[in-house]
Amino acid sequence: MVARCRSQQNGRVTDIEVIRLEQDLLRPPRRGDQAFLDRVLHPDFEEFGSSGRHWGRSELIRTLLAAPDLPEPQAHDFRAAPIGADAMLLTYRTSSALRSSVWLRTPAGWQLRFHQGTPLSSGRFQPPPPVA
Questions:
Q1: Vertex 55 angle, CA 49 and 57, to 5°
Q2: Between the CA of residue 28 and those of 16, 33, 36, 49, what are the distances in Å?
Q3: Which residues fall within 8 angstroms of residue 26, CB to CB, at 6 or more apart?
Q4: How far apart are CA 99 and CA 26, in angstroms?
Q5: What region does 9 belong to: left with phi over 0, alpha with psi -120 to 50, or beta?
């Protein structure tokens, strides 16, 4: 996995921590770790996958534990931006989708509350046209 990342807060420790947690969720050993998933997925976690499927927390955990050796996606261009005192928006790309995650700082630590994957129509990122 390519771990290039940029933070709108210029390297705040919380940005780095959230990016590391997201990257850990992409790694097969961590996806098969029940204790890790229980700790980092918020009790109200939801995902809208790039396939269009809606995932709840328990369903996603069951699926990940049943297939922990899925290939690790190549992820890059991580960007973290605070969206509140205890909330962080993380965006990045994989080869097939643009991805966004909302992380919340809770008494249990940072937890992933929401994730969305938006498929790339051509399989490649196409930047928007320049503003005239």
A1: 130
A2: 20, 9, 12, 18
A3: 1, 72, 73, 75
A4: 12
A5: alpha
Per-residue pLDDT tens digits of the chain, which is 132 residues long: 333 344 444 445 678 999 999 999 999 999 999 999 999 999 999 999 999 999 999 999 999 999 878 889 899 999 999 999 899 999 999 999 999 999 999 999 999 999 999 998 765 555 666 665
Tokens 């995902």 map to which residue? Answer: 47
Best CA proximity match to 39, nearest among 126, 111, 122, 113 = 111
Longest dimension (CA), the chain: 50
For the chain, give the secondary structure using H, E and C: CCCCEEECCCCCHHHHHHHHHHHHHHCHHHHCCHHHHHHHEEEEEEEECCCCCEEEHHHHHHHHHHCCCCCCCCEEEEEEEEEECCEEEEEEEECCEEEEEEEEEECCEEEEEEEEEEECCCCCCCCCCCCC
